Amino acid sequence: MPPRATLFNITGTKSVAMQKILVWDAPVRVFHGCLALSFAGAWLSAEADGWRLLHVTLGWTVAGLVLLRLLWGLVGTRYARFSQFVRGPRKARAYARQLLAGRAPHSVGHNPLGAVAIVLLLALGLAVPLSGWAALGGVGGELLEEAHELLGHGMLLLVGVHIAGVLLASWLHGQPLVTAMFTGRKPGEPGQGIRSAWWPLALL
Question: In terms of pTM, does the model score above 0.90?
């Protein structure tokens, strides 16, 4: 395992004057928590016939949350926007090599690997409920039911990989990234933080 990484800025030089700044707005944090709980509940109720209504309700909740996150990814705060963190597979591979070497640049928002996981989770967050809705309506028969189950397994696996990646990056960077999703704050340079948490929208 490589040594614990030092924080570097985007140019590869050591960052200075790092302090806790507001990065994740409240809508992103509320979405994250609600998505995790809804998917967990849908997964646990999937095989119980008596919990079918709960399973379907949570599935539609997942789809609705993803649609709201897609909208917020277009018009939301700086680090919530897809244009800020979606960089493609080449950047993700380069970041993975730097991370394993202990010299990954510090990302104020999502890092390139995290961005890949988020895009895939959002895609599956729509595919799983839609396939379930179609299967429930009798479209596609057993084949679509199996596809729905396979997509659910794939999303669960991706969630596990995402959690492992967050823990690994937290250790290598020396940052509590899990805590940041609750507080909204991460290390950064003065002036990099967002101005408002947008709590009224999150509560809505």
Answer: no
